[in-house]
Amino acid sequence: MHIIETRDLTYSYPGGIDALRSVNMHIHRHARIAVLGSNGAGKSTLFSHFCGILTPTSGQVLVHGEPVTKKNLREVRKTVGMVFQNPDDQIFSPTVEQDVAFGPVNLGLDDATVSHRVDEALRLMEADHLRKRTPHKLSGGEKKRVAIAGVLAMEPQVIVLDEPSSGLDPQGVRELTGFLRTLPDTYGMTVIFSTHQVDLVPEIADYVYVMQDGMIAGEGTPDEIFLRDDLLRGARLDVPILARLLRSLRESGIRIDAGSSYSDVEAELLRLLADKT
């Protein structure tokens, strides 16, 4: 059974604007899923269906094999936690500590459990020093950390991040990338993130969906997707630097047998160079 599935998911905004058209996705536990697409492709609208913020015009969203309905919305949101693109849409409490505690408190957890979850979430995001700060006085990167900590404190099985690198400086992007990569293996979470910054994908994802005009235009592993120039051009996306490098090396007769991350490729290149000396 897939942890999240969509079946012919269609959604139209008022005025007849079709944002999603017959979207079919299958997401299994512990996966790292990238949803690629340019602005307006439907990524945010899709994600809002995963946790029941929006209701399909037609089709279904299933979590643990059960259709998302108003009756099971509370259980769905225990399973699926969403981090919005703009943290100001998510952070509203007087202090960081209170904001991170909001979700666990609303789950009806006791004070000791809430305190433990807040401490752990802030530790994971290296944001413990912010706990007494006022959220609206934080930097963009600090707000992003707090928003993610608030979702982690709910201990969801799936964390959904809409354009997680938005507003982060290069160091913040590197730290976030490393953290997201570890979540499935270390904490058993499924990670789903959207982006139009293709260079993030090889570092994090093991499977990719490409969206175009509210539809799934293609899917596959990062290696498979980034060999499809026609697909990427149609979706107005670039080929990641790493994918271009690997393709160039292979066309030159140098076969790199490595994973998709930059560190894996670097290690493999160094090994090949060492073998030639």
UniProtKB/TrEMBL annotation:
Entries under Pfam families matching the protein: ABC_tran (PF00005)
Predominant localisation class: membrane
SMART domains: AAA
ABC transporter domain ranges (all copies): 4-238
Any GO CC annotation of this UniProt entry: ATP-binding cassette (ABC) transporter complex
Gene Ontology biological-process annotations: cobalt ion transport
Biological function: Probably part of an ABC transporter complex. Responsible for energy coupling to the transport system. Part of an ABC transporter complex. Responsible for energy coupling to the transport system.
Keywords: ATP-binding, Cell membrane, Membrane, Nucleotide-binding, Translocase, Transport
Matching PROSITE patterns: ABC_TRANSPORTER_1, ABC_TRANSPORTER_2
Cellular localisation: Cell membrane
Topology in membrane: Peripheral membrane protein
Organism this protein belongs to: Methanogenium organophilum
The UniProt record lists the keyword Cell membrane: yes
Gene Ontology MF terms: ATP binding; ATP hydrolysis activity; ATPase-coupled transmembrane transporter activity
Family: Belongs to the ABC transporter superfamily.
Protein name as annotated: ABC transporter ATP-binding protein
